[in-house]
Design a protein that fits this description.
217 residues, mainly alpha, Arc Repressor Mutant, subunit A, 3 domains, 3 strands, 60% helix, elongated
């Protein structure tokens, strides 16, 4: 078998039509064609044809992953799930995930660091909720703990809980007249934001005009 013609597709840039022995054989990406280094006139064996098909599929997996990563940073788990939904072979998915990690385009530690800092900047969040969200995104438990430990060495959890409480006070302070009900709502709000009771209690005791006698230690 011999490649008799390679032409660009009219409707899809970056793709070629390959003709073997005068007949259309396949549509393939320019990238895959360059990787196998085939040109018009080259002889092509069944083995080389299978290699070309394999490279084309790897190219599809890689390009799908890169498009997914173009919107925002992702965890390895997120990209894997995206590719599995596309029904790509698992072996090719794992190979592309390895390639993306080696190139630095996928890095769960960097993702966790960026995610935590973004969350702390945009909306005060407690460690418990941050850990939960990281786990939901596929960051391994031990890694999530390590990154949280590192970041909270330089970030004050008390500052975060106070900022969250201040936001609550600005928007809801006048809506609840009963002191006990008010403290309960504030405590619930802070707990939902991932703060522990050890973080929350000192804040409740500092609320102006509210008795602290009923607040448990």
């Amino acid at each position: 078998m011999r490649i008799t013609k390679i032409e660009s597709q009219k409707r899809k840039s970056g793709r070629k039509n390959v003709y073997i022995d005068g007949r259309f054989s396949m549509g393939i990406s320019t990238e895959a064609l360059l990787r196998v280094q085939l040109r018009t006139g080259d002889e092509i064996t069944p083995e080389l044809l299978r290699e070309l098909e394999s490279v084309e599929e790897l190219t599809k997996v890689r390009n799908t992953a890169l498009r997914f990563l173009a919107h925002r940073s992702r965890t390895i788990h997120e990209v894997r799930q995206k590719l599995l939904k596309k029904k790509f072979p698992e072996k090719k998915i794992e190979r592309i995930l390895d390639d993306l990690q080696e190139s630095g385009l996928l890095n769960d530690r960097q993702f966790a660091e960026m995610y935590i800092r973004d969350q702390l900047t945009s909306r005060p969040t407690g460690r418990l909720l941050l850990k939960q969200k990281l786990r939901q995104l596929g960051v391994e438990k031990q890694l999530a703990e390590e990154v949280l430990d590192e970041i909270f060495q330089s970030v004050s959890q008390q500052d975060a809980v106070h900022r969250a409480a201040e936001k609550f006070l600005r928007t809801r302070a006048g809506r609840v007249k009963d002191p006990v009900a008010f403290r309960n709502r504030l405590a619930g709000f802070l707990a939902r934001r991932g703060f522990s009771w050890d973080d929350i209690t000192p804040v409740l005791k500092k609320i102006p005009g509210k008795s602290t006698e009923e607040i448990p230690e």
